[in-house]
Amino acid sequence: MKFTPLNETCYYFDAVVNIGYVHHGDQGMLIDAGIDDSIMRKVLKELKANELPITHLFITHAHADHYGGAHFLQKKHDITTIAGKFESAILQHPTIEPLYLFQGNDPLPELHNKFLEGKPIQVDRVIGEGEHTIDGFTFTAHLLPGHSYHQLAMQIDNILFAGDSYFSEAQLEKHKIPYITDADLTLESLLRLLSIDCDGAVPGHGTFEKDFNQTVEKNIACHEEIMGWLVKYITNAKAGVTHETMVSDMCAHFAVENSMLSSWLLYRTAVTAYAVGLIKRGKIDHYMERNIWKFRNIQSQPN
Ligand SMILES: [Zn+2]
């Protein structure tokens, strides 16, 4: 984990899950908190070694790898915690994440793990998109849904802390089917990212780039390619395809092998997100047949 300066006030901890830091006088704000106590211990040690204050925390979205270290931080320091609406509900009641992934059923014990559920935290300021001044920090919160319901990227001192609104090329290659909740919203958010004027961006996973538009374009191309494949796949299934088979076939096509329920649930959501995006675009149709949720080509609908 490398503590990297970006300009006079902005830094980031370059790690598996990046953590931003902004220093204004006697105040210091972390952007995201890493996955657990041990990550936060390292962050606090580094800030202390550099004699930098820690007074505020901003959480981009309520995924455990971005807020899991926040409980420990709140225990050790008097922190003002800021998060977007909706995401803040999950931060305060983290069981909601395994609950929604498990389609609303009470999660099985194995789903209560640190990758899907952090410890609950207190949120002091719940915000929406737009300009905000909170104590010594003036920033713009950009609403970028599609990966998480109300994800907010923070633009401050001309640096964009983007959360998971886009992924590094390496992440795209690693996951093959990136985790999203709605492909249509994801693409809208990526286009919005291209219009943000700033000196560079820190993604949740990957490295800071001055010119991050190329990486955003690669994200767009990746999602379009997956959607293109899915339309062809559904078009070729003349009798329609069940949701379950679509998840299995798409994972097989992209060489994704899930041996654990928890990782399969994430991929099920991602595959469904592409189908949802195509329904919204009017490219495929969905229907019920003998209590099975199915998808078909738009042309194969009866008149
Ligand atoms: Zn995330």
Architecture overview:
The protein has 303 residues and is an alpha/beta fold. It has 2 domains: 2-165, Metallo-beta-lactamase, Chain A (4-Layer Sandwich), CATH 3.60.15.10; 225-300, Winged helix-like DNA-binding domain superfamily/Winged helix DNA-binding domain (Arc Repressor Mutant, subunit A, Orthogonal Bundle). It is 36% helix and 23% strand. It contains 10 helices and 15 strands. The strands form 3 sheets. A 7-stranded mixed sheet has the order 1-2-3-4-5-6-7, with no helix packed on it. The protein has a 5-stranded mixed sheet with strand order 8-9-10-11-12, with no helix packed on it. β8 and β9 (137-143) form a beta hairpin. α7 packs antiparallel against α8. The protein starts with a strand and ends in a 6-residue tail after the last strand. The mean pLDDT is 96. Zinc ion binds next to loops. Residues 61, 63, 66, 147-148, 164 line the site of zinc ion.
The first-level CATH class name of the largest domain: Alpha Beta
| Mean of residue pLDDT values | 96
Number of domains: 2
User: What is the β-strand count?
Assistant: 15
Q: In one word, what is the shape?
A: globular
Strand content: 15-25%
| Unreliable residue runs | none
Task: Give the name of the CATH architecture of the largest domain.
Answer: 4-Layer Sandwich
The oligomeric status of these chains comes to single chain
Global Rg: 20 Å
> CATH superfamily of the largest domain, please?
Ribonuclease Z/Hydroxyacylglutathione hydrolase-like
Classification by helices and strands: alpha/beta
The set of bound ligands, ions and cofactors reads: zinc ion
Instruction: Give the helix tally.
Output: 10
Query: Termini, distance in Å?
Result: 59 Å
User: How many strands, which pairing sense, and closed or not: the largest β-sheet?
Assistant: 7 strands, mixed
